[in-house]
Amino acid sequence: MRTGSETLSNVVASQIATHAPYGGVVPELASREHLRNVVPVVRTALAEAGISLRDLDAIAVTEGPGLAGALLVGITYAKSLAFALNKPLIAVNHLEGHIHAVLLEQAAISEDALPLPALALVVSGGHTHLYLARRNGESWHYKNVGRTLDDAAGEAFDKVAKLLGLGYPGGPWIDALAPHGDPKAVPFSFAQIKPKAHGRNAHYDDLARKFLFSFSGIKTAVLRYVQTHDMAASIEARRSALAQIPQAKPSDALLLCDEETLGLIASFQRAVVDDLRRKTFQAAEAFDASSVLISGGVAANRELRVRFTAEAAERGLPVAFPSLSLSTDNAAMVAAAAWPKFLANEFAPAELSAEPSLALGR
Ligand code: KG4
Ligand code: ZN
Question: Minimum-distance ligand to the CA of 250?
Answer without folding.
Answer: 1
